[in-house]
What we know:
By secondary structure, the protein is α+β, with helices and mostly antiparallel strands. It has helices at residues 22-32, 72-85, 132-141, 154-159, and strands at residues 9-17, 38-42, 46-48, 59-68, 105-111, 116-117, 122-123, 168-169. The strands form two sheets. Strands 1, 2, 3, 4, 5 and 8 form a six-stranded antiparallel beta sheet that branches.
Amino acid sequence: MFNLRETKREAHLLLGGNLGDVRRTFERAEELLQDSFTILRKSSLYQSEPWGMESENLFLNQVWKVETVLSPILLLEKLLQAEINLGRERAEPKVEGAYFDRTLDIDILFMDDLQLNSDKLVLPHPRLHLRAFTLQALVEIDPGFIHPVLLKSTSYLLENCTDNVKARKLD
């Protein structure tokens, strides 16, 4: 008889939303996803202007560091289903890369030091180093994590980020 161990991976997830009661939506996402991973750390909530879009609604964001046995694609599928269950509607953008208001968006920023480039998922997240609001929350919980492509710490990336959309840490 042999012991088949499940491989545990650490992932960093970015939650964001700007419609409805976003704090409650994050809590409900945690409840829905409790069988998919264990949360190791959570950043504070950060509030910011919309990034890459125009909207009157401010965003709330939070980064979770989680441990999971799921593959990156299976984790993505679970996150997308949670988004739908919590009211996310995806509109087809008229322009590539266009963003819309949303109840919930969950991005996988990193999964260990994995590099992946598929039709469904790119890891590490291709724009995380360009977004101060993402880096601020990420640095709060994992300042020394090394970006597997850029080979720089999250702290270094934040210090050198030229994004002028800074986030305000909430209590």
